[in-house]
Write a sequence for this structure.
């Protein structure tokens, strides 16, 4: 193998000292320095977190949850008075009226504020559980995006954090995924318990909802024999604590379903690795079969169809982590297996009785 002479390789008009082992010399030629500068990759700029949009969505969610609580969880009914061809239009002047909405907000203003505070406290604790763990492990993630839904009885569709799970290893994705539900339950369970103690089982309106298993156990403890699963609980009789606790349990149970990149999907992938793909696929097959039977047999539109379609679009399989070989340890394994029971106690397959 031939080696070139440094003196021969040097550009004209410059001198290059003899090369020595372990010593690097910087050339005095501007041309050589320019070539080295072009060869170096440009510095990678880190994108700043979006702040404006999360704040706007948070404020809109404050309004939508307040509206839900101030209308006794029937905002669509109150808002419908302003729609065309509605029976509540002013017949004499043929103008829409927001009087039912204004009257409800005036009467239940404090309840709307309390419901808003309780729901947002649960959602904020849940999302901060995720976000704090991403900071601990230095995994790039967005601020929480709260999702307002003014026409919904609960006023929101929860909140999400954008994160690339492939940046975290197996243990880190387990901690990030499970921290949110556990933090949310720490806030949701006391709120639910206060709501159960204050609940009035007087006859209510026709609109009713089913309570999850955890809430049924609490009701049976405080009000033995008062809850009828066939009838559920009247929405207009639910106090703000009770309704916010119901929402908190429902959101937590939904997020812990063992599929895709939901919190439960993170946990089950950390526990079982690629074998979790078969669990997720089997779960989706059972869920889709159940919803199909509900539509064809009971002529009812399941509320989870849109969620199922979204999961199918995203993909049922959890992507690999940065290192799937990192051990979880016995404590995380036991905690993860126990957390798989959260949907059983918190999720409600049929919202309506």
């Amino acid at each position: 193998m031939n080696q070139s002479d440094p003196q021969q390789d040097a550009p004209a008009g410059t001198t290059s000292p003899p090369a020595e082992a372990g010593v690097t010399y910087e050339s005095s030629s501007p041309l050589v320095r320019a070539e080295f500068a072009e060869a170096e990759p440009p510095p990678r700029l880190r994108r700043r977190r979006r702040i404006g949009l999360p704040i706007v969505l948070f404020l809109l969610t404050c309004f939508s949850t307040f509206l839900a609580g101030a209308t006794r969880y029937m905002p669509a009914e109150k808002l419908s008075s302003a729609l065309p061809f509605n029976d509540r239009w002013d017949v004499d002047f043929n103008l829409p009226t927001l009087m039912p909405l204004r009257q409800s907000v005036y009467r239940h203003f404090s309840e709307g504020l309390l419901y808003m505070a309780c729901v947002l406290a649960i959602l904020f604790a849940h999302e901060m559980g995720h976000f704090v763990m991403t900071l601990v492990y230095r995994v790039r993630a967005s601020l929480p995006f709260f999702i307002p839904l003014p026409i919904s009885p609960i006023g929101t569709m929860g909140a999400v954090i954008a994160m690339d799970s492939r940046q975290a290893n197996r243990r880190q994705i387990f901690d990030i995924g499970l921290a949110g539900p556990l933090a949310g339950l720490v806030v949701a369970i006391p709120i639910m318990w206060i709501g159960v103690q204050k609940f009035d089982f007087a006859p209510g309106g026709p609109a009713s909802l089913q309570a999850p298993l955890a809430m049924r156990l609490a009701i049976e403890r405080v009000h033995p024999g008062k809850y009828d699963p066939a009838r559920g609980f009247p929405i207009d009789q639910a106090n703000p604590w009770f309704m916010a606790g119901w929402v908190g349990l429902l959101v937590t149970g939904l997020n812990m379903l063992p599929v895709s990149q939901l919190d439960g999907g993170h946990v089950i992938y950390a526990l079982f690795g690629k074998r979790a793909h078969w669990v997720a696929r089997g779960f989706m097959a059972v869920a889709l079969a159940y919803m199909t039977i509900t539509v064809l047999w009971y002529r009812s539109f399941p509320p989870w169809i849109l969620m199922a379609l979204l999961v199918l679009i995203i993909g049922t399989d959890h992507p690999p982590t940065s290192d799937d070989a990192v051990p979880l340890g016995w404590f995380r394994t036991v905690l993860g297996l126990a957390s798989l029971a959260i949907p059983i106690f918190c999720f409600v397959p049929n919202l309506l009785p």
Summary: Strands lie at 145-148, 156-160, 208-209, 233-234. Residues 52-81+96-346 form one domain. Residues 1-28, 30-40, 88-94 have pLDDT under 50 and may be disordered. The CA atoms of residues 181 and 252 lie 6 Å apart.
